[in-house]
Amino acid sequence: MIASSTLQCLFVALILFLHAVESNNPKSDQDSVGGCSGVPGIPGSPGHNGLPGRDGLKGDDGMKGTKGDRGDKGATGKTGPKGSLGQRGSIGPMGIKGEKGIKGNLGKRGEPGPQGENGTDNSIYWKQCVWKRNDHKDTGLIQECVFKKRHSSTALKVAYAAAMRVYCSTGQCCGRWYITFNGAECSGPMTIEGIVRMSNSRDDPLRHRQIEGLCENIPSGSITVAVHVGNCKGYRSSDRNSGWNSVSRIIIEEYPQSQT
Question: Strand, helix or coil at 5?
């Protein structure tokens, strides 16, 4: 059925048309009077989609948004392979000394070590030779004393004590008493000796005197220690006496270690 509004429009259009025919000017009438809208036509088929357009210009960056809430902790990942050893760093400064630790338990007793070399005895080994004789020799051997030296690294101390004198009625005279070891004077470090000198005296100066010293670098074994008398350097022979009416003695001591 046709709607009433449509019928009304058709009726008005018919009247206008007839009026125009009578006035022979259909155009002016059509312009002065609006017509009714026609019935809508049937919709056509949709057209094909057009080609995609080009990308538009990049827009400006938007404002930074607010920080979101922290997410939940993720699951622990698998341990990766061990990396290669890095270069050794420089030694750092010495740290503060730590506190003394707790004393540990006593360890097991170790096995006995190899036997060491024989050491030297710290005790002093000595010998004394004594005699009572008025010896008038001006030069030569006065007395010997044999000593058994135990170690080559030790030193020997020798002391000779006796009444000794030189005599000359005119000029000057000098006598030298000295010690030998197996016939040779000491060279480590120097000789052991003593001198008595007189000048233009009719006196007979018999007095008790003593000479002593240490000698090193003497090998171990049997050592003949002897006292001799002789001339001082630059002096001729003179009247000498050793041990007049008194006890003479040689004391020999072996010291465990020499010191310089």
Answer: helix
Residue written as token pair 């030790």: 154
Query: 10 Å Cβ neighbour count for 156?
Result: 24
d(CA 237, CA 209): 20
CA distance 118 to 256: 13
Model pLDDT for residues 22-50, shown as the tens digit of each residue = 665 544 444 444 555 666 668 778 878 87
Q: What is the token pair recorded at 193?
A: 């000796």
- Burial label for 209, CB within 10 Å (0-12, 13-18, 19+), is middle
> Which residue type, as a one-letter code, is found at position 130?
V
Give the C-alpha separation, 105 to 179, whole Å: 61
Task: Quote the DSSP letter at residue 154.
Answer: S
CA angle 92, 93, 95 (to 5 degrees): 115
In DSSP notation, 67-80 reads: PPPPPPPPPPPPPP
Ordered domains of the chain (ranges, CATH):
1-35 (no CATH), 125-255 (2.60.120.1340)
User: How do 172-181 and 184-185 pair as beta strands?
Assistant: antiparallel
Residues 4-19: pLDDT tens digits?
Answer: 666 777 777 777 777 7
pTM of the predicted structure, to 2 decimals: 0.53
